Amino acid sequence: MKDIVCNIEMQTTNKKDHGKRVRFYQSMVDSDLLDKGESSKALCRSYVIFICPFDPFEKNERVYRFETMCREHPEINLQTEAETLFVCATEKTVQLQGGLGHFLEYLLRNVPTDKFTNDVHGAVKRASKDAKWRREMYTWKMKIEEEKELAAAKARVEAIQEIRRNIIFNMTKQGLEEEEIAKLINVPVEMVVEVKNSISGKEG
After folding, report:
1. How far apart are CA 93 and CA 72, in angstroms?
2. What's the mean pLDDT in 26-37?
3. How many helices (DSSP H) and strands (DSSP E) are in the chain?
């Protein structure tokens, strides 16, 4: 088992859905770490790192770090060992004093300025020529797109089901019979009965 896993994502545009993106990528990391039926104890420390050519929170920080803490008592940390970082390479953050300066400038301008960024630049060039690496990146990208499509499809189905339930609820209140409702909105009678029972349960 790996001790630490890092998932680094390049964000080219500020779509402002940072929380949902964190949730999505973290779930991808966790599902890859666990085999089906395996205990959560097998999860190792993980980092989801977003590299941004913008400041998503507009506080002029080079790095924003997020962990799971209690709102009422911030000193309580759930110790999920899952951390999210937003690394911001902007004209303002490049000018700030302190660490990461050379790396942020490299991210912003793609020009190495010290030994570390020279090493990174060389590694990027070698990787871009590696056919196996390109295939892996393409496969990973396709997997992410498929997961997004599945999530969107599931959300659409759930939304349609919720609309149908509301319609059944209103028709039931108007005194329509179960078979009549099922025929009018093209759903199984069992679904109408289920909604009616839930209404009766709430009223009881």
Report:
1. 32
2. 76
3. 7, 4
What one-letter code names the amino acid at 86?
F
Q: Label the pairing between strands 82-88 and 63-66.
A: antiparallel
What token pair was written down for 148? 């997004």
Residue 49: strand pairing partners: 8, 85
Q: List, for residues 121-132, the tens digit of each pLDDT value.
A: 888 888 777 766
> pLDDT per residue over 4-27, tens digit each?
888 888 888 888 888 888 988 888
Amino acid at 83: E
Is this structure's pTM higher than 0.85?
no
Which residue, among 63, 56, 57, has the nearest Cα to 85 in the 3D structure? Answer: 63
Q: 90 near 55, Cβ under 8 Å?
A: yes
Cα–Cα dist 195/179, whole Å: 13
**How many other C-beta atoms are found inside a 10 Å radius of the C-beta of residue 79?**
8
DSSP helix/strand/coil, 100:
coil
Q: Which domains does the chain have, with CATH numbers?
A: 4-131 (no CATH), 152-203 (1.10.10)
Q: Provide the 3-class DSSP secondary structure of residue 106.
A: helix
**Strand locations in the chain, DSSP E?**
4-10, 45-52, 63-66, 82-88
Q: What gap in Å lies between CA 146 and CA 153, rounded to an integer? A: 10
Distance CA 114, CA 125 (A): 16
